[in-house]
Design goal:
The structure is a homotetramer. Chain A is of the alpha+beta class. Chain A has six helices and nine strands, in the order H-H-E-E-E-H-E-H-E-E-H-E-E-H-E. Chain A is globular and about 50 Å long.
């Protein structure tokens, strides 16, 4: 634990020891897999090694996060290119054929974008059931507003449960350059958001260091599940409301929360 | 296990060894985190060190409960002030900046209130999905009545499943002094209740010692989940019933249970 | 594992070594607690030590199953009385005050009844969420019929998924003598049933030995959850159907299954 | 981990060391049991030892997967017959009476069929809650179409979330020869499918090696749960739509996904 603490942030020109961050990322990746947030090689985790130039330690593509070893973590530069001469042993269960040099996460550009725009020290992408369900259910609304929950107080800068958190939902794309552009646009448009969702793909969040990013993941995944379960109970606005519907469940309101607002 | 047993209660002037209680609280905190009841630094746990004067061992604020170490547990007095000269190492992942002296849980006043009014030996606050969902869903009713379930028999003083347990729901507040006052009022108004909920925030329960408090947590969290799932199945009264609704799901009754009452 | 195998059954006059059965019961108790099937001191597990006279090894009352130790397992005779001179150390977190001699499970008479009527070698009572929800939801129907699921093939004597399993639901009672009488009546009335439910209380099942009983628990708890989730999806007959209801969800049929029957 | 990697595939005449595959299969079986995918002796796992002649390492019938040991794994030939003279010790908790020679999984013929038709290196059958629920709910439609989810990209040969995966649902049968015939027919009819469901029975999937098959299990089980939860939320087409129903939830469309299609 002491190690993780000291290996958790990078000042302007400072380099954080790669080995410690790699160990933390691998450990967290295995934990996320165990929690169902990074199954089937999904999800990715990164931490900033240095800010100028921007360099990240990041999980490899196609790796089983349940078996993630420190040796599999890669170092990438601001353009997303893995370090030359890195002799990382890729876990034998990666999607790329055995023997190929390990490649950084396919979503490296997104991590770099978030790290740059938000000045984050760590960026985490979880691919959970509820993140997938809600990012699909609320895609048309363009985002999810969450307010009234005490859990929101754990987000950096938030002091009260009456905070209104807006989680934008972006359309998923395979063109990473395009997607990174969308992400940058959304981050600049919503400077207060602590995360965003990719439709049918899951959650991205970050923090000043790995510990804060992890805390944000726990908080947002928790709140997504609360919303998902409340959707089933009927208190959240129906996703399929139409103007003709006279159902008492129609609310017309986009935001929902624990209840500082009467409903 | 032997240690936890002997370190679980404090008589009138007796002091319970701090170290054992701290170890028990840290262990239980990690267990609750693993169960999803204390994610993102939420939740708090305390145990009484002495009754006159009232002193508690309590979890620190902003700590990742999954990494909670005995060394992080604090001692507070009846006013909620942490002991002078305590050199507790705060886990590096706490919300307060590294280097700050550790602070006791933000909800310390609530723990003191419960310990005093109920004469409890331990007070536990879990922040679960179902506690959050149901405290939000039933906030307007002011509480949840649970009856007919065998699990109720595990609550102190309860001998039959035909017991009617009332869990009051309080509005959540950030002003701890105000909130502690609400809590005291509710505890005095409902002397038989084994717990209460804070809206959108979760469950508080207690026991004569840590073991009994833990048993109460397991029982009440279990029952909250049963109710939540039955809500979805439609047997519990609809939360959003209106006078116009002719839906067969409307029952008009506030209490629900396994079925000593016909429905 | 070898031990559990040999310690799992008792012939007519044969005594099975107590120590091995106690270790297996304690281990299984802890596992059930970890699975959420024996929370808050609920649930109980027994295995037959000898058949003539009938003697069981059984879990104590009021014990935290998550901390269950072999030393806490008791031996009872056909009348349910614990052995004289047993110096079992009761885990410090039991419901009875510290220092009291350990007492056998409050439901010992039910275990004895099942062991006698079914000739079972082990009897297991789990107190799960889904067992509690469905035993409450279907109480008025007096039972649950399950058919069409491959999982049914794991039940002793069942060779096909087209098997129709009937799980009777009994009203819960605190008078154990009365309840044992009900249990005996139901077991004699439904000789093919592999288990029964106590309303709002959970599942009882058994097997020729602990391994078979455990397999039956896994199968029946699995099927209860499948039914519970299908209830939410709407394919199972509505619990609250009335004769007036014209809802398309009304089916009038009591049995439900995967689909050897058109619906 | 290194072992599993090298023990994961078999070329044309090559024999893969049995011991390593057996260890991997046993380990994976225990993991699947822990995840709730192989409870009550359900589920089965196999890996190809050699292709010409076709020989598999496969789990035994009636074994508690939670206790699965390498020594219990059997070797079978292309006709499904276990190797002569194999002295595998069957775990004491198997369904067949103690002392009987271990038998290969009852579904061996299905594994052989998949290995042959798909040229797979490993075949895995999980028996999960959601696999059971959805294979029952969508049986009449003959299959489930899944599209729009990023998780689909983890399937071999899939490059985009806009992929449309069709999971056929076959009627369950006890006659293995008949069932194997159905499986072969379905595999030939749907060459792009990465898996299929047996009604009320669960999922079959495969891969070029054990790691890929495991990845496919994680992906498909994840997607089945996403669909199941979305069914509850109402976005997936109702299973019980009838021509008379005017419910706004009726969609008439068979496919559903995250949303490349408007709904």
């Amino acid at each position: 634990m002491a190690r993780r603490a000291s290996a958790s942030s990078a000042g302007s020109g400072e380099r954080v020891p790669f080995r410690r961050l790699a160990a933390s990322l691998a450990s967290l990746g295995r934990e996320f897999h165990g929690r169902g947030w990074a199954l089937g090689t999904s999800g990715n985790l990164s931490a900033v090694l240095s800010r100028n130039p921007l360099r990240l330690a990041i999980t490899p593509t196609g790796a089983d996060k349940g078996e993630l070893a420190s040796a599999a973590i890669l170092e990438v530069n601001a353009a997303g290119r893995a370090r030359n001469g890195s002799r990382r042993a890729l876990p034998a269960n990666a999607k790329s054929p055995a023997g190929t040099a390990a490649q950084a996460s396919a979503e490296t550009l997104l991590h770099l974008t978030v790290a740059r725009v938000r000045g984050a020290g760590a960026v985490l992408h979880t691919h959970s059931i509820w993140g997938t369900v809600l990012s699909s259910e609320y895609a048309r609304q363009g985002g999810i507003a969450i307010e009234g929950y005490e859990m929101l107080k754990g987000l950096a800068g938030v002091r009260t449960h009456e905070h209104r958190e807006w989680l934008p939902i972006l359309e998923n794309r395979q063109d990473m350059t395009e997607l990174a552009r969308s992400v940058q646009h959304v981050l600049e448009k919503h400077p207060a958001s602590h995360g965003f969702l990719l439709r049918g793909h899951g959650l991205y969040t970050w923090g000043r260091d790995l510990a804060e990013a992890k805390r944000h993941v726990e908080i947002l995944e928790f709140l997504l599940e609360v919303l998902g379960r409340r959707l089933l109970v009927g208190s959240a606005p129906s996703v399929r409301k139409t103007s003709r519907s006279k159902s008492p469940r129609r609310s017309g309101r986009r935001k929902y929360g624990s209840g500082s607002h009467s409903r």
